[in-house]
Amino acid sequence: MEPATRIVELRRQLEDANYRYHVLDEPNIPDIEYDRLLRELDELEAAHPELVTPDSPTQRVGNGPSAKFAEVRHAIPMLSLGNAFSDEEVHDFARRIADKLKRPVLKFSAEPKLDGLAISLRYENGVFVQGATRGDGATGEDVTANLRTVKAIPLRLRGIAGFGIRDSGFGETAAPSPLPVPNPQSPIPAVLEVRGEVYMPRADFEKYNEHARLHGGKVLANPRNGAAGSLRQLDPRITAQRPLAFFAYGTGLVEGGELPDSHSATLAQLRAWGFPVSSLSEVVEGADGLLDYYRRIGERRDALPFDIDGVVYKLDDGEGQREMGFVSRAPRWAIAHKFPAQEQATTVEAIEIQIGRTGAATPVARLTPVHVAGVVVTNATLHNADQIERLDVRVGDSVIVRRAGDVIPEVVGVIAERRPEGTVPWRMPANCPVCGSEIVREEDEAVWRCSGELSCPAQRKETIRHFASRRAMDIEGLGDKYVETLVDAGIVRGVADLYRLRRDQLLQLKLVLDAESPEALAGAVKPHLRPEGSGDVLNAILKLDGADDDWRARALAQRIDFAWNPKKIATKWADNLIAAIDDSRDATLERLLFALGIQHVGESTAKALAQWFGDLELIRRLPWPLFKRLPDIGGEVARSLGHFFEQPGNQQAIDDLLTVGKVRIRDIHPPSAKLRPELDLAALLVEAEIPTITPLRAQALTAALPTAERIIDAEPQHFIAAGLPEASAAALQAWLEQLGHPRLLLEGEKYIARILESAPPLEEVATGPLDGKTVVLTGGLASMSRDEAGAKLEALGAKVAGSVSKKTHLVVAGEAAGSKLAKAQELGIEIWDEAQLLDFLARHP
């Protein structure tokens, strides 16, 4: 037999064996025979390389490691699904569709919801050309090379020219699930995207881990993580060693052909073309049929060969799907019915505080290890202090732990009868366990936060990302990966350290991030080393443990004397980044205040602080009640500012920015004259939120006791003599007896005097045509950006707001203005178009 003919026959036999094993679950040859055929094909292709094709079974493991995954934009987004957790929600789902389509009887395709990794496979003229992860639904990662290693994924579809299959698999052998019988002659579309789930069967997962334990390899945490991690290996040869499987559950883009107009028939057609489809997929009728399917699958859940976390219901009728459409990022015609999370009992050994990237203080229970849903759980979230109080969780308690959504372990209840004697209620600690700053709770919020934003190591990466962002200090080129590695290496410990970065460090960072292993890094570094001492440098790099994720940080921390070879590395980007960092030193006050990342202080609040107070040195020392004298700054924002500036670590970070970083504020100015009528001792008493102290009572009190010192030294009878009711006098006395309050009054009085001393006289304040007016911009402007328009309006005295309310005086509506325009019309607010805005600006330059 001619080699070319034999190669075609071998490929046909091997693909047919794959199809019968993975799709029909009816293997027709033993494994040893499959291996013999594959070896013969490999030998023939090695002797005749011109006959090798990308879809040959020998090409399932091709090239070596990739540097990184490319992005793939999905032609049709991979949508998420809404969730149902009760029978009532399933009935509501079916009823909504029936009401919309005006059909009393509905058929649904029901199928198990696999706990794996969603992927999209693209076939052109029946040949697999690209595979991508779901990613964020719009953009995923190109994992084509890794998906080629998954034997259950066909490289060439059955029925296309040259495949040589004798039958479609549904002639002699019945379809393995109750789906419609497909048309074996149905033409394959020119472009076909198939969506499905890559997963790891339970038995194969256990075998893999057993082998890993025996040979000192890496043990996988669970089948889902095993599948996801396997597909994201940069070396497809590693993926090929993992026991991955695949089920198709739908399609994406289809061009140059048609699919059946029902979901179940489409699944049957996909199986005919060579895709595995779950044998548990069924077509059922109405909500009762859905719930019956859910219960039957739930009873079989533990015995299934793969992990599932629920079932998925899809309206089977394609026309009905199109009529129902989508809401947000989910189809209205499909829903996931999740199984109840699995629970176990264990003991709370400790309750610790975990500080998140944004400073949120989350209590975490340290548990006696327990198996929950196939995973050993040692920690569980307690969400917040309110949840702990509600459950009354204490150290030593026996608790019920659940993996919420089969992912995040949480404590859901206490077994009260098992509580040991001597336990005490838990209380949120006063200080951050990481940096020592005060932990504060916002009014009407469940979340407690560390107030050491700039100084807390737990928040360091997020702080630096925000500080460098475009609307803050605008350090262009400082991407997330650079920040991650610079912080992990200990080179950047705070925002001021950005201004210490050297060109050498950035170029070294690029080499480290691009290298896939210490060996690769040594090769990349070698051309840039001086001859003397280069051997020691390379040996030190090669000794790094490439199995740990932190080897890059340790490599970057090494001090190396480089002699950069410009022919071997691009340097302009590093020069540009150093220049961008240097340019950011010359900052406006509002940008710097926003860049500090103070909780609740956005761009508009930062702008107001800069305009009214004019100087960072004043703002950073100001007692918090005085911030409330500014328009639109309430108690929550004022207290957040106060907590931030009270933390020594934050003040040190600001000092470092100004001295080490040499950041210069170019628009320092005296406080606004408009502050004069807003500031006096009576206003301070009111803004300090002293119980029952109203503006009238504060005026009466300060008329009799005109200084903070006299108020602090007074007795309750003096307050009564000044006109306060007995209850108010007692409340004021109790407030003054609390630690820190007398100092707050003294500091507030001092800073009021400083502001009044340096602010210009009120009569010198220039007024603009929009003074006291609130303006909202909406829609697109052709002649300028909304930011530019807002700046021009503010220069004329306007306050530019982001939302329309009864306090809004004017709305400027550009192209495609939406809900804000509609609300302005509803409230009868004056509305300008762009032409009116330009005319006004021309008349008031």
Automatic annotation (TrEMBL):
Functional note: DNA ligase that catalyzes the formation of phosphodiester linkages between 5'-phosphoryl and 3'-hydroxyl groups in double-stranded DNA using NAD as a coenzyme and as the energy source for the reaction. It is essential for DNA replication and repair of damaged DNA.
GO molecular function terms noted in the UniProt entry: DNA ligase (NAD+) activity
Gene source species: Pseudoxanthomonas putridarboris
Electron transport in keyword set: no
Residues the entry annotates as binding NAD(+): D31, I32, E33, Y34, D35, S80, L81, E111, R134, E197, K314, K338
Enzyme Commission number(s) from the entry: 6.5.1.2
Name this protein carries in UniProt: DNA ligase
Record has Membrane as a keyword: no
Substrates-to-products reaction catalysed: NAD(+) + (deoxyribonucleotide)n-3'-hydroxyl + 5'-phospho-(deoxyribonucleotide)m = (deoxyribonucleotide)n+m + AMP + beta-nicotinamide D-nucleotide
Gene3D superfamilies, A to Z: 5' to 3' exonuclease, C-terminal subdomain, 6.20.10.30, BRCT domain, DNA ligase/mRNA capping enzyme, Helix hairpin bin, Nucleic acid-binding proteins
Similarity annotation: Belongs to the NAD-dependent DNA ligase family. LigA subfamily.
Residues that hold Zn(2+) according to the record: C432, C435, C456
Cofactor dependency: Mg(2+); Mn(2+)
